[in-house]
Amino acid sequence: MGEAILCYGKSGSGKSRSLLNFGEDEIFLVNVIGKRMPFAKKFKYEMTSDNVDVIKSKLKAMPCKVAVIDDAGYMMTNTFMRNRDAKDQFSVYNQIGDMMWGLVRYVKKELPDDVLVYILMHEESDDFGNTKLRTIGKLLDQKVCLEGMVTICLRCVARGTSHLFLTNSTGTGIEKSPEGLFELEEPNDLKAIDTKIRKFWGIEPTKKEDGK
Question: Is the pTM of the predicted complex or chain greater than 0.90?
């Protein structure tokens, strides 16, 4: 099974920036709304789509072992905005819930064992400073709980001019990771994160034979 990994944070916290150290042919980037990356590098394998069925089919066929969906929250936002005038709003929220739940399940059930898919999303905070994924609809918040479907959930934070990954919650967030995998704070480098995960779980990417 593939591995879905959540990365969440505020706008400007370094989610997209964390891709900088990947080689140009090392990742498949799903750029959901076609925004420019915060660096000059361009990736060889990239697509713009918010259609979950298209995204799943492209994940299945991608030529590399790392995918990044940035920003997956706009898959929900765009679906909601396209259907905001629908009479049956309950069905719209169900559609959004099914979409995100189905995406994570697809990664875990249908992709090869050596594929890691990083799902980047925005965060929201309550009046007490508790942070969570920014989602749309109670189905995802109360019934599905996306972070409950994954083993690793990282939070991006900015401190002055520095950007970091928080890897385990201190009580106010949903970040989590296996014991011994990370330090409590890791540099904002998703390539280094990917390397550590693969070493920890013994996930060696298999190479496709020529012509296959």
Answer: yes
